[in-house]
UniProtKB/TrEMBL annotation, chain A:
CDD domains per record: TM_PBP2 (cd06261)
Family of the protein in this entry: Belongs to the binding-protein-dependent transport system permease family.
Keywords linked to the UniProt accession: Cell membrane, Membrane, Transmembrane, Transmembrane helix, Transport
Protein name: ABC transporter
Transmembrane regions listed in the UniProt entry: 55-76, 88-110, 144-166, 187-212, 245-265
Domain annotation ABC transmembrane type-1: ranges: 51-266
Bilayer topology: Multi-pass membrane protein
Subcellular location: Cell membrane
Amino acid sequence: MLQQSCCCLLFFIYPFINTVQLSFENADSTRFVGFKNYQAIFTDPDMLSVLKNNLLWLVFGTLLTVGLGLVIAVLVDRLKVEGLVKSALFIPMAISMVSASIIWRLVYLYRPPDQTQVGLLNAILVFFKLPPQPWLVNTSVNTFALIAVYVWMWTGFCVVVFSAALKGIPDEIVEAARIDGANRWVLFWRVIVPMISPTIGVVTTTMIINILKTFDIVYVMTGGNYNTDVVAVEFYRQLFTFGDYGLASALAVLLTLAILPVMYLNIRRIQLEEGGQA
Amino acid sequence: MIGEQVQQPLIPALATARRRPRSRRRAWLRRLSEQVITVIALLIAVVWSLPTLGLLISSFRPPSLISTTGWWTALLPPWQFTLQNYVQVITAQGLGRAFINSVIIAVPSTILPALIGSFAAFAFAWMRFPARNTIFFLIISLQIIPLQIALVPLLQIFTNIGLTGQYAAVWLAHTAFGLPFAIFLLRNFFAALPRDLLEAAYVDGASNFRLFWTIVLPLSLPALASLVIFQFLWVWNDLLVALIFLGGNPQNAPMTLTIASLVGSYGENDQVLTAAAFLSMALPLVIFFALQRYFIRGILAGSVKG
């Protein structure tokens, strides 16, 4: 059984070392080029725009999923419709990002202003006498349009996890705060948030890691075109479209480096919990 | 429905005693605000469901209508629905074949990590060997490492031994990538089993292997169910691994991959895409509704402990 766990390690550790090595070599891995690939990532304007998009994803994707998840979880807590609302939010978790992308292509569908809009969002705009937008092509909104799909998919996850944590807050504490005159707002910030802060930490790190690796939504909806490219899609393009193993590996290494601090926090947390149990 | 049990106050009498002094007016205000919140919550649920509903309705509409009117117009008479899109997508677009491929890929990719993971989890929970905890932490920290880091070298190895484009390549990759989570989830469950029970069996001369099959595994069925559902959905919905290892061989492509390439070649031709997307969602949705409890337990085990 020990061998199996070692096999599992080998499946990751050999590729890891290999990828780091490839990232210091040229496109077909025949020559050592030092930091040239990394330099390209941080100076090339196209690459910089990829990094900028990933940053937008990271900030807005994380804030929206965690924020909305927390607010909705608190809102529906102990309502009669709690189960129903949570199910509705949670269903997107079960479907693939490919299907989600097709669902949202229908929402964002754009027709020139003189035609009937068949996309839901543009139909709503037209209903309010606003000009329809090509959501996936317009470079000032398209990254946000893609982030919205991610938020739609993952808010349900956050709601379910937060909801379970809320059930763990003793009723006495909430009641005591209410008797002391705390309104919903004070209750939320002074009682609920501090009490479930470990869960908020876990959900936030999960979202950060997830979002850094975002691939499917961008790949299916825009293919990384119209200035929506992110690191994981660019990695794929470098690998298969341009056959540049060096640059692709350097992108993968960067992705891992970005995740390392989050990983460290997670391991610390698990170690603390394990220590508490013993 | 997702329904956890609402926690009862520890001392019920005390809770009611506290509630009594509240004036009737405040209670009325509270009921009103509860109704307002219920309406807001339901509104959120509706907004969240609209996109999926749009897909479902569109997939049953005749192609000529899909491209000229919004799906919401189908809600009013005259109702015009058809199965034509489904017939076309299954027969002409190879989605039937892709569905079978998805099954062929997902079943071994679910069973293998569950089996190997439970062996490893047993070792980590109940057997003593040097550096046990260090190795366990290393493995669970692998959960977080992005897949991308392993893809290039794996692709090179698989290509060298002729696995690229074969089902086995995806089985191996999904097993390896799924193991850290499997080991993490199961070890925590195994470790919580009653120590006395295992020790008694051990004293009676049961081998580790026997302990595992006759005591640990039967007692851990709920955890195994969570894991299997999770892994199955993960593999069923995966695009990246399939794209990398099967991208060059459409014969073996799963549904996600086939649909992704339909998007590329059809673009605006939505009658094909809507039916295809709904077909690929059908199985996960059935699993989700039938086994929601286990699905959610798996999520909670992975993120909140206890």
